[in-house]
Amino acid sequence: MASKPILDIHDKPSATQLVTLSFQHLFAMFGSTILVPQLVGLDPAIALLTSGIATIIFLLITQFKVPAYLGSSFAFIAPIITVAGLDASGVAVNPGNAMIGAMLVGIVYAIVALLIKTTGYKWLMALLPPIVVAPVIIVIGLGLAGTAVDMAMNITVDGVKEYSGLHFSAALVTLFAAIIFNVYFKNILSAMPILLGLIVGYVYAMGIGIVDFTAVKEASWFEMPNFLIPGVDYEFSITATIVAAMIPVVIVTISEHIGHQLVLGKVVERNYIKDPGLHRSLLGDGLGTFVSALIGGPPKTTYGENIGVLAITRVYSVYVIFGAAIVAIVISFFGKVMAVISTIPTAVLGGISILLFGIIASSGLRMFVDSQVDFGNNRNMVIASVILVIGIGGAKLEIGSFVMSGMALAAVVGVLLNLILPGRDKGVTDVHDLD
């Protein structure tokens, strides 16, 4: 029998509880949410702001029944870098391209949500079985492995990358701190290893003198996030490259969304696939992503870190999640706080990325195990092998101005192979029982 919740879904906490518990959720998601924009050259302040806005949108769409927090999605890191590009200092060259792509992703979510509402969900599970999704998840993690190691080991001097043992030591301290918090600590500390690892790595980086505080001194206490408005800050133009790079990632993020809804449902003892319905939660995720991109934020996804906090604390109140969203919005306007975040050395980000990207890849392996995928079956072996080699090898398909490569191409090929090759199961092929 599950433990009785301290605060159930619609229980209202006291003012003190609300503040304390809301900050707890903020800390859980903070490290991951600000890490994504740091890696793709976007503004952490706008990512934090839009995480709060997207969460509120999600709560509204799901009728305040689902206590989920939406943060920056790691699945879109490589596609954003592809369409936006990075300059020598790590700033996105064409961030508008990433915003356009994210808006299109939000629209795809809405279309899928409409189809689910009218036709049910089993067709989606048959289209995205573990044999397709798991290797694509592995590709996402391993495809970013080189980026993480490069950030951890190298610095740029006069436009040339050089190995730096000093910086690599900061990466290792960050990495091992995050591992220690994740493995050896219990309760709430184990739910936020990314944030705590970043803090330990940052303190160490200050100690060895590789943190530049110039930006903090120059920043005002109150500053507006760097909004990116279509038609004002960039020309809204949908290209084949943007579509090819961003849309296929939906194959993974929708599967991730379903998984989170199932896990969250088990934690709070509710069936969110039926009430408020998968179509509502998916629409909330998509609309949150669309609005986020409309003002310059990265794509959003429900966060496993915050689900972990719910499980540990047994506080399921949507008022607490709403409070965390408000706190995130408010903090995004504190210039000094955002300036401190901007001073985090690349090596520290690289150290935490080694763990994060490895966990992403390992979660794909775990899906194989949990789903009991039979690799004695040649069909499964072929699909997984082709996806892994195309994705990790960086294969590219060019037809005129249309370019699809790496993870996106691997995902599409995986779906097609699953549909074409004989032996596909006719029923729901996901490891989870949605009924």
TrEMBL record:
It is found in: Membrane. Its main location: membrane. The chain crosses the membrane at residues 45-61, 68-86, 98-116, 123-145, 165-185, 194-216, 236-254, 316-335, 347-369, 381-397, 403-421. GO terms for cellular component: plasma membrane. It comes from the Bacteria. Keywords: Membrane, Transmembrane, Transmembrane helix, Transport. The keyword Transmembrane applies. PROSITE patterns: XANTH_URACIL_PERMASE (PS01116). Coiled coil: none annotated. GO terms for molecular function: xanthine transmembrane transporter activity. It is a multi-pass membrane protein. Signal peptide: none annotated. Belongs to the nucleobase:cation symporter-2 (NCS2) (TC 2.A.40) family. NCBIfam families: ncs2. This is Uracil permease.
